[in-house]
């Protein structure tokens, strides 16, 4: 039982999560039944518990994304948002089904925080230290969390559509949404 079995276990885990999105925990026995393998085979050769399955899923998704963020070589004067749209959105799109399960079910309450923390670390060096022109007197931590949560919200809304656009098409919309405020999305008569 090799890589194919691990994929089968992960896919079975996801099928169960989608069938019961409010359930926070599945046993190895439930996953084994769905995967059509024995619980002992999962335990002895692959995963000791469901947390290990979640860790494996997170690691596979995040390794590629975070590795790309860590090796970011941007052109001078390039926005980190443009880099994110060009380089990171295609990777996230590749894992769109996994991402959808992690963001629409109760299976992993930590995933959003892991991503938020990592994005905050990435965007921190790009913050404008001269806050006087914007008249927003908030901490750097607050600013970087707003940026990270905004990106996560946009990506989540994109990938949780039934048929999300490919990243090459969505990247323009992504950048437009990042530069728009919530106020910009309202009808004129309801804007601040």
UniProtKB/TrEMBL annotation:
InterPro entries xref list: Homeodomain-like_sf (IPR009057), HTH-type_Tx_Regulator (IPR050624), TetR_C_Firmicutes (IPR039532), UPF0122 (IPR007394)
Protein name from the UniProt record: TetR/AcrR family transcriptional regulator
Superkingdom of origin: Bacteria
Transcriptional regulator TetR C-terminal Firmicutes type domain mapped to chain residues: 88-179
Pfam families (alphabetical): TetR_C_8 (PF14278), UPF0122 (PF04297)
SUPFAM superfamilies reported in the protein's UniProt record: Homeodomain-like
């Amino acid at each position: 039982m090799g890589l194919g079995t691990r994929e089968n276990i992960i896919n079975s885990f996801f099928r169960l999560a989608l069938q019961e999105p409010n359930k926070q925990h599945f046993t190895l026995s439930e996953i084994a039944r769905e995967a059509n393998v024995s619980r002992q085979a999962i335990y002895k050769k692959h995963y000791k518990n469901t947390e290990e399955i979640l860790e494996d899923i997170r690691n596979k998704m995040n390794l590629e994304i975070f590795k790309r963020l860590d090796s970011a070589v941007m052109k001078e004067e390039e926005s980190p948002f443009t880099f994110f749209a060009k380089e990171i959105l295609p990777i996230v799109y590749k894992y769109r089904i996994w991402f959808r399960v992690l963001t629409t079910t109760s299976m992993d309450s930590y995933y959003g925080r892991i991503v938020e923390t990592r994005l905050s670390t990435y965007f921190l060096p790009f913050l404008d230290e001269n806050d006087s022109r914007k008249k927003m007197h908030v901490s750097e931590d607050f600013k970087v969390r707003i940026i990270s949560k905004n990106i996560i919200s946009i990506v989540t809304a994109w990938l949780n559509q039934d048929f999300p656009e490919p990243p090459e098409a969505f990247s323009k919309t992504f950048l437009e949404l990042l530069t728009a405020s919530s106020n910009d999305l309202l009808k004129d008569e309801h804007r601040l």
